[in-house]
Amino acid sequence: MAQIRGTANYHLGPDHRPFGGPSHSAATSDPSPLDAIREQTNKIEDYLDRFGEPIKPYLPAIGRFLIVVTFLEDALRIMTQWSDQLQYLRDYRHIPWGLTHLFLTLNVIAMSICSVLVISRRHSEYAVGGLLAVVVTQALGYGLIFDLNFFLRNLSVMGGLLMVLSDSWHRKRFAFAGLPQLDEKDRKMYFQLAGRVLLIFLFIGFVFSGDWSITRVVVSMLGFVACVMVIVGFKAKWSAVLLVVILSIFNLIINNFWTLHPHHPHRDFAKYDFFQILSIVGGLVLLVNMGPGQFSVDEKKKVY
Predict the structure, then answer these.
(1) What pLDDT shows up at residue 300?
(2) Does pTM top 0.85 for this prediction?
């Protein structure tokens, strides 16, 4: 835009000062703080685009796999700890014998089949619906719906699943012609907005849990700014990349279940949290690939 602000179409030279004051180009050469911030973020985005160009075609597949990895791990956990799961549901949740078997069996089947469908990009609507149903039924079945951290993490997982739907509709919009495209485009916009809003709830849980330190305060502030930028859709790709880095480092340091003894009481919890965060990182990866959508500041700037 700097080239447009000069003396074009007025035939005024750079040193022409009709009123004895500074030239127009000199008066507008000093950028505002917002312009300076935008210039720096544009440079970062250009660098990220160049750096990520080799892996960009694989981002949708990586994102989809990471989103469902927590469901695959959970299905494997239920099968390998079948008797412990039955005992917990019977003794602590007071679910009648028989219904416990049905509950676990249906969960394993739904998580396995729906996860494979998401990875293979087949029947994504039904697959996402099945996984959303699993999230809700497990929250009720295991009695964790009133646990704040569990609730916020599952909201973020749901956000990742909504990003899968948006990605599916984004890919299908070129395959059909006519009015149905408009309906699908509208659905994609709303689900993409809901998905990126829900994705950041995990970070809210991270901010309000654990012991405070200087490092935690700095990371929380950076993450909070990135979350706000993701919600409003301002430099959303850059913000999503920052959150991916923060969550990945946090996940490796805090949820390092592989360093715990196999019979350590906290190993299963750390493993569960590790794979859940991977799923949310997968949703952010899809956001990086697709962009924030039409309900965003980034998209409005293109229009105006």
Answers:
(1) 59
(2) no
Mean pLDDT score of the chain, rounded to an integer?
Answer: 77
Residue 6: which pLDDT band, with cuts at 50, 70 and 90? very low
Q: Token pair of 69, please?
A: 């990895």
Whole-number pLDDT of residue 255: 85
